[in-house]
Amino acid sequence: MVLSNTLRASVMGWLKTLSAEVAHEGITCNVVAPGAIRTDRSLETAENLARRQGRSVEEVITERSKTIPAGRYGLPAEYGPLVAFLCSDQAAYITGCVLRVDGGMVRGW
Hints:
The protein contains four helices and two strands; from the N terminus they run αβαααβ. It has 109 residues and is mainly alpha-helical. The chain folds into two domains: 1-35 and 74-109, no CATH class; 37-72, no CATH class. A two-stranded parallel ribbon has the order 1-2. The longest helix is centred in the first third of the chain and has 21 residues, at 2-22. The protein starts with a helix and ends in an 8-residue tail after the last strand. 4% of the residues are buried.
């Protein structure tokens, strides 16, 4: 997690710098930060943990879901449309932002 957390902070700094540098060209730069989204990768991670702990995948997912205010993993269909919106003309004035799609999991700024 040390490397991952360090890189996240670096990406956010780079985002702010890049978005300011290219905004005058009509280019937007944003980060969409997913929480627990029910993808093949998140299921693989749950499967590995379940195997190590001798539990079912659904038990692992249910336990993790308790830490998410929405009470569940998000769906790709709840993530993708936001990304598509940010690529649209309607989002032309949104730049340098971090948008969380995490069911309220991250409680800080």
